[in-house]
Amino acid sequence: xxxxxxxxxxxxxxxxxxxxxxxxxxxxxxxxxxxxxxxxxxxxxxxxxxxxxxxxxxxxxxxxxxxxxxxxxxxxxxxxxxxxxxxxxxxxxxxxxxxxxxxxxxxxxxxxxxxxxxxxxxxxxxxxxxxxxxxxxxxxxxxxxxxxxxxxxxxxxxxxxxxxxxxxxxxxxxxxxxxxxxxxxxxxxxxxxxxxxxxxxxxxxxxxxxxxxxxxxxxxxxxxxxxxxxxxxxxxxxxxxxxxxxxxxxxxxxxxxxxxxxxxxxxxxxxxxxxxxxxxxxxxxxxxxxxxxxxxxxxxxxxxxxxxxxxxxxxxxxxxxxxxxxxxxxxxxxxxxxxxxxxxxxxxxxxxxxxxxxxx
Length: 360
Hints:
By secondary structure, this protein is an all-alpha fold. It contains 13 helices and 2 strands. 36% of the residues lie in helices and 1% in strands. The chain has a two-stranded antiparallel sheet. It is globular, with a radius of gyration of 25 Å.
C-alpha cells in the first residue's frame, strides 16, 4: 500500500511536467493566396472583396461536404452535387431531408467564375455567395435555419479553428460561411477535356468527333442545306460553352408551361419559360438534361433540337427559324457525330481532382 501511495504523486508530477513542455498550438489567420489553375480558359473575373486564399477555399470545401448544414445532419451540398457526376445530380429532381423532390434539376457546379449572369436556373441569386446559403433554408432541400447551423458549427473546435485561419476570428457567421463556400466553388474548374487538348495540339479528334465539331459550330442555313450546321454554338459558345443568357429553347407551347422560369424573378412577361443556358462541359456525365430533367440521354437532346422544337411566345428567334423550316434536317450519322463531339468535353482530370473531394 505504501508503494502505491508514493508512486501516484510521482506519476502526477511526470504528467504535469510533460504537459508543460509541450508547445501550445496557436491558431492564427493565414491569408496565403490560393493559386487558381484554369489552363487556356480566359482570365476569370474573381470578386475583389473575397480573394481566394488556401484556408478560405479549404473552409468552403469543408462546408460543402458538411452534413450539419441540414436539419437532420444527413445531407450536404455534395449530396446533390456529386463530383463524379460533374458536381450535379443524376436524379431528375434531388431529394431533400424530408425525401421531398426539388422543383428543378440540380445544376452543375464548376467554372462558376465564368458565369456573369447570376445563379440558379432562374437567376434568383445575384452572387455565388448568395446562392450558397439558399439550399440550407429551402424546405425542399436541407430545411434548416442559418441560426441552427451556426450553433452546430460553433460547438465544434475544428470549425472554430478553421474560421480563425480563414477570417482571423473564431466567430462563425452566415456571411463568413457564404464567402468561404463561394471561394471553394470558384476553385472548382474544368479545363482539361479532350477538346481542350485538341485545341492545344496535344491530341486529334476522331473523324466522327471532327464532323460533330463542325456541325456544332456551323450556323443553321435552311436555304443552303449542304452548308447548314446544327448551330449549337449559338447558345453554347465560347470557352465555357454557354452564353450567359436566359432562353426559351422550345420545350413546350405556352399552354403547357409548368414553370415560368426567369419571369418569376424579373416579373417580365418576355422572360416567361426562359432559363439559364448551362455549360456543355462534362455534359456526358450530367444527365438528365433541361431544367426539368425530362431527357435522360444526349441523343434525346439532339433529337429535340432537330425535330421537336415547339413554338411559343418567348421562343428564341434562332429556334423559331429552325421550327419554321422543319428542323435541322440532321441525318442519323450527323446525330451520332454531334453526340461524339459532346463527349470530348468530358474532363477526367476535373472529375477526379483530389482537391475537390470530401476532406473528411
